[in-house]
């Protein structure tokens, strides 16, 4: 008989997995925060360009990372079934698909200036953004491979290394970004290109460290992760593709919602786009905590689903919701009470545009408080559903919620109701509400009572 774990045992297990993952996600975001702060002190146009470029890179990355995210539940369920061969097969083919995707997508970065101009961005912002993306685009393959290794190690409950490697990368990035952007310590002043180069170096360095750990750690050698890596495994590749493509498209639908608001904010003005980028950076850091909890829920749910343990699966799901909700309450209080000091960290207050950015960014953080619970709910529901390898219907739920409801609502409220940036962020609230409600209903309605 399978023992039923107590609520406290589920909470401890989720936190043991989720906190290091959340920390690593926050550290990953901190890499971009460092770039934003450095460029915010360098110039408003450069800041807007890197904000836009980072958003474009992230949207493409989210699509490709679906294969990496598919590795996590596949490895977790294989471990639940005691099938170590499947662990290796899923991880390897996740890396294959990541390499193929990164190579295929690079032309978008190379021709990004023309694309951004066609989308209505200002010429100086589009030019600098393309300068950033042509360099940063080379980092897509190492970034995706790191994501696969993170998923693989998380499913094996090896999350501490993921945290510390990412934290170390933040400090190295800070040491590289500042001198490359401003031209300090004997290095040339490179502006946005310096930021991109620093990010690329970090991505390659992180990949090398993670690969060495996953391949050489004695307790993990039995999986033989890189042995005959060049040999294709078409059955496993197809399985990862079938599970991962809907995950990537789901992430693309959500990231596309936020990217669409960034593009529309660019229509309103450069200062507004810069404030939007700062507010997004802040809320994204908080969101990473929920992503960590969601990933932990995926691993735990996958293990229980692999062992057909529905009672523990449901109880663990309830505890994951409770943890995420508690974090959401704290974040709401922070966004409503500390908005101006937080936004002020990202700008040079002596700049002429600083008061406008400070006011506008603080207003947007108030709207972030409004969608905090809904954003947490939808990402947690997706994590729970991935644990049971349910990804196709959630993909359609996300597409409808974000693109048939969220984006039109944002456009109408911003430009037809003349609410500007407030209208754009109100559209985010509406889209996330529909997604969270529908996804949570799908998970709880499909899990056996146990």
UniProtKB/TrEMBL annotation:
Q: Which GO terms describe its molecular function?
A: antiporter activity; xenobiotic transmembrane transporter activity
**What topology in the membrane does the UniProt record assign?**
Multi-pass membrane protein
- Residues that span the membrane, as ranges: 39-72, 93-112, 132-149, 161-181, 193-216, 236-258, 278-297, 318-338, 396-417, 423-444
Write down the Pfam families for this protein, in alphabetical order: MatE (PF01554)
Compartment(s): Cell inner membrane
GO BP terms, alphabetized: monoatomic ion transport
Q: Name one GO cellular component term.
A: plasma membrane
Has the keyword Amino-acid biosynthesis been applied to this entry? no
Asked if the keyword RNA-binding belongs to this entry, the reply reads no
What domain of life does the UniProt record list for this protein's source? Answer: Bacteria
Keyword set, alphabetical order:
Antiport, Cell membrane, Ion transport, Membrane, Transmembrane, Transmembrane helix, Transport
- NCBIfam families, sorted: matE
- PANTHER family on file: FMN_FAD EXPORTER YEEO-RELATED (PTHR43298:SF2), MULTIDRUG RESISTANCE PROTEIN NORM-RELATED (PTHR43298)
Q: What is this protein called?
A: Multidrug-efflux transporter
